[in-house]
From TrEMBL:
Domain of life of the source: Eukaryota
One Gene Ontology MF term: structural constituent of ribosome
Family per record: Belongs to the mitochondrion-specific ribosomal protein mL46 family.
A GO cellular component entry from the record: mitochondrial large ribosomal subunit
Mitochondrion recorded as keyword: yes
Source organism: Danaus chrysippus (African queen)
Domain Large ribosomal subunit protein mL46 N-terminal: 25-119
A Pfam short name: MRP-L46
Principal cellular location given in the protein's record: mitochondrion
Protein name, entry field: Large ribosomal subunit protein mL46
Length: 257
């Protein structure tokens, strides 16, 4: 009896059930796979001023470190030894002093060579690997065929009956990107939304409603068959369709350099 009332009810509930039963839109799940910066990006002006403030507070309010206390004790023992005092701690004097340790550390640092943040992929202009632009966020886009045209989009696939949207997202990564790519999903809920219409009606569907899921890249490359590109924010503007890119940029962290 309750079911009959809901079906034939002319109010919002019955209307919603009826509309869902004959939806004219495909449900699509897309995954935004982002590789976070590997190297700390340059600080902007606000960050630099905040860093200086924290350093000032640290110097004014912090307690002395073990190394600073060791320095002071070394000076005291050296003065006692100079005056031939009976209070001198011979065991402390015979050990390596804090200054000796500091000099050895500086010498070791001078011989250390830092790795170059410009990789081979940067030098060769290779966008097909995540080992590029180490100071920036990179988003994975692949070739996706819609109708007779191939677009640069994030991996996506149709939702199947019985799946949750999160399960569809996991399946899309597994089926389209290959077994080597490992990602970490950060939520069970979508982070963004976009919809578009098909040029022609397909199986009674006029278009697709796309639900975006966000995931961080863990390790592994993407199958080269998909012609993958790992793009920066600016490169996405050039590669992705305009409205699609605006929907994606709305849930991504902005970069300020």
């Amino acid at each position: 009896m309750l079911l009959r009332k809901l079906i034939f009810n002319k109010g919002p509930i019955g209307s919603t059930i009826f509309q869902r039963g004959r939806s004219s839109w495909d449900i699509v799940t897309s995954v935004c796979v982002e590789r976070l910066p590997v190297v700390t990006p340059p600080l902007n002006d606000i960050q630099k001023r905040f860093k200086e403030l924290l350093w000032t507070v640290e110097v004014e309010k912090s307690l002395k470190s073990d190394h600073e206390l060791r320095h002071e004790n070394d000076k005291v023992q050296a003065e006692l030894l100079k005056n031939e005092s009976i209070e001198v701690d011979l065991d402390a004097v015979s050990k390596i002093t804090a200054q000796d340790f500091e000099d050895a550390s500086q010498d070791e640092l001078s011989k250390f060579k830092f790795a170059d943040i410009v990789t081979e992929a940067d030098k060769n202009g290779d966008k097909g690997t995540y080992e590029r632009c180490l100071q920036r966020h990179l988003v994975l886009v692949t070739d996706v065929k819609l109708g007779n045209k191939v677009w640069k989009l994030m991996p996506q696939g149709l939702w199947k009956e019985g799946e949750s949207l999160r399960q569809t997202a996991e399946r899309v990564i597994s089926e389209q990107c290959g077994p080597e790519l490992k990602v970490k999903f950060l939520s069970n809920a979508p982070c963004g939304f976009y919809k578009y219409k098909y040029p022609n009606e397909i199986d009674g569907k006029i278009g697709a409603k796309v639900f975006f899921y966000y995931a961080n890249h863990d390790n592994g490359e993407v199958s080269k068959k998909l012609n993958p590109n790992w793009l920066t924010r600016k490169e996405m503007v050039e590669a992705l369709p305009d409205r699609y890119n605006k929907s994606v940029q709305s849930f991504l962290i902005e970069e300020h350099f």
